[in-house]
């Protein structure tokens, strides 16, 4: 399962680190794995996301994800929450909100 032992400040720092990893490491991995993502019609992106969450799990001892299935579901939940947030926040292009 997924366990978190700590207070909300620690949880906030986990989210911050996950955001930093997604901002800096994920684009590099997406570029490197472009052929695999094309072959799998983008499903390999899920593996990349799982790797990012696994990395955060390694960095924070208070976050415990045991097993591949809980890691998969955690990845899907975070992806779904990100999708819902992106639906409510308009994207900016060249300084103009569309």
TrEMBL record:
Chain coiled-coil ranges: none
Keywords attached to this entry: Membrane, Transmembrane, Transmembrane helix
Name recorded for this polypeptide: Phage holin family protein
Entries under Pfam families matching the protein: Phage_holin_4_2
Residues that span the membrane, as ranges: 12-29, 41-65, 71-89
Organism (species): marine sediment metagenome
InterPro entries: Phage_holin_4_2
């Amino acid at each position: 399962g997924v366990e978190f032992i700590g207070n909300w400040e620690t949880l906030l720092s986990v989210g911050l680190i996950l955001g930093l990893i997604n901002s800096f490491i994920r684009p590099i991995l997406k570029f490197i794995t472009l052929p695999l993502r094309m072959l799998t019609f983008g499903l390999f992106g899920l593996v990349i996301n799982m790797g990012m969450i696994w990395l955060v799990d390694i960095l924070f001892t208070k976050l415990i994800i045991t097993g591949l299935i809980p890691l998969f579901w955690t990845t899907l939940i975070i992806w779904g929450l990100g999708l819902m947030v992106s639906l409510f926040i308009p994207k900016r292009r060249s300084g103009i909100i569309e």
